[in-house]
Amino acid sequence: MTDYRTVDAHGLVDWLAARPSLSRRLGGTSTDWHVREVSDGNLNNVFIVEGPAGAVCCKQSLPHVRVDPSWKMPLTRTDFEAAYMRAVTPHVGHLIPALLDFDPAMHLLAMESLTHHKVLRHALEDGSAQAGFSSRVGAFVGRTGFETSWRARPFEAAMADLAAFSTNTTLTRITVDLVLTDPFRAASPRNHWMSPELDTAVTTLQGDRAVQRAVTHLQERFLSAPQALLHGDLHTGSIMVQGDDLRVIDGEFSLMGPIGFDAGLYIGNLLLHAAALPDRQDWMLDEIRLFWRALDHEFRAVWDAHPVGGDVGALLAPQDRHRIQTTALHEIMRDSAGFAGAEMIRRTIGYAQVSDFALAGDRVREAEARHRALEIGRHLIVQSTRLDTLGALIEAARR
Ligand code: SR1
Ligand code: MG
Q: Is the dihedral of CA 379, 219, 303, 328 positive or negative?
């Protein structure tokens, strides 16, 4: 931590001025640059810097959770985000912002500024999101899910990622606790919920042994099925949109894990939005269809394009490939359903909830929306091992 200091606007300008390529991108001299703090997530400081020629987005880790300074945290999370961006950029191109620079001593990264983009969750909330965005998210998960798997590359490359990202233990601990444990356990002090409206539902959920058994299965999948390099926190706040341009941001939770974890978090957030605004349910179910079809298409297409890229699959006859792909996609769907359910529940009663519920209108409707989210979430979790097709998932999510 010796060379680290948390930058403010002035410190950031000095840091940028010492970097010729970033200075050129901004243009003019440092006195022409305008810095705006745009931190929105729970963990880090984020700034947009604009100059006469262009803009840069800078993100720096803090020694604590941004929204809770008493929650101390190591600084390495931007290191993992930079490593994730480097690892997936060759496969997804402009579906993520370009990484421009990373300073490991300052844990400060600079990336392409998405000045005119909006966080997808906000675009959904203010009604500006254009229908159809999910096909690009599905393509992102399908491509990263295959290209970083053991099927696409020699085991040495996959093991290098396994070794590198398995040290992302601080953020993995957050996921294990906040997504896959605390919400399902009474007396977890970080849980909070709309009380008294949800009291009975929460007590029932936390005493439900079928839920405990199914979440145990999800915990095992998350921690012991390193299928591919995951984003690790793929919710609608980790995606930015402008018209039909979409970028996935915030890869700090990256790790090797089951592909259905990324897919499930995304699906869960669409279903949370539908729970908050029932008249958008058909739209959100359409988005899930688009998402899954694109994931399915890309996953098969990149596999077909290099059928013997990895050690896994080296013996597979071409005529068996389609069937093996289908089996793999069924497994991803089952995992997705379960993780979507866990995400819905943790975003309703856990530490980090979603702002979508405020759209419900009044307290009565919000309580109904939250009850819906808990009910659908529970159903997806306990039924997940039976939900292996898109049709089955949609039907389960319609309750
Ligand atoms: C303390 S971090 C809480 C949540 O914010 C992040 O975006 C992740 O979703 C995490 O679970
Ligand atoms: Mg984030």
A: negative
**Cβ neighbours around 61 below 10 Å, total:** 25
Q: Using one digit for the tens of pLDDT, what is the confidence trace for 359-398?
A: 999 999 999 999 999 999 999 999 999 999 999 999 999 9
Protein residues within 5 Å, CB atom, of ion ligand 2: 41, 250
Task: At 333, list the tokens.
Answer: 């769907």
Round to whole Å and give the CA distance between 291 and 139. 8
Residue 101 DSSP SS3: strand
Ligand 1: residues whose CB is within 6 Å?
41-43, 65, 174, 178, 233, 352
pTM for this model (two decimals): 0.97
CA 365 to chain centre: 27
At 136, the amino acid letter reads R
Q: Which of 302, 226, 251, 223 lies closest to 87, judged by CA?
A: 251
Specify whether the CB–CB gap between 175 and 235 falls below 8 A.
no
Region for 249 from its dihedrals, namely left if φ exceeds 0, alpha if ψ lies in -120 to 50, beta otherwise = beta
Ligand nearest to the CA of 342: 1
Q: Ligand 1 pocket test: which of 73, 233, 248, 349 has the largest number of ligand atoms within 8 Å of its C-beta?
A: 233
pLDDT digits (tens, 9 = 90+) for 234-249: 999 999 999 999 999 9
Quick one: which atom of ligand 1 is closest to the CA of 175? 11
Which residue's alpha carbon is nearest to atom 9 within ligand 1?
A: 233
Beta bridge partners of residue 68, listed in sequence order: 65
The strands making up 55-60's β-sheet, listed across from edge to edge, are: 34-37, 45-50, 55-60, 108-112, 99-103
Report d(CA 19, CA 14) in Å as an integer.
9
Question: What CA–CA distance (Å, rounded) separates 197 from 146?
Answer: 43
> What's the pLDDT tens digit per position in 60-92?
999 999 999 999 999 999 999 999 999 999 999
In this prediction, residue 100 has a pLDDT band, given cuts at 50, 70 and 90, of very high
| Residue 255 burial (C-beta neighbours within 10 Å; 0-12, 13-18, 19+) | buried
* Count of residues in the chain: 399
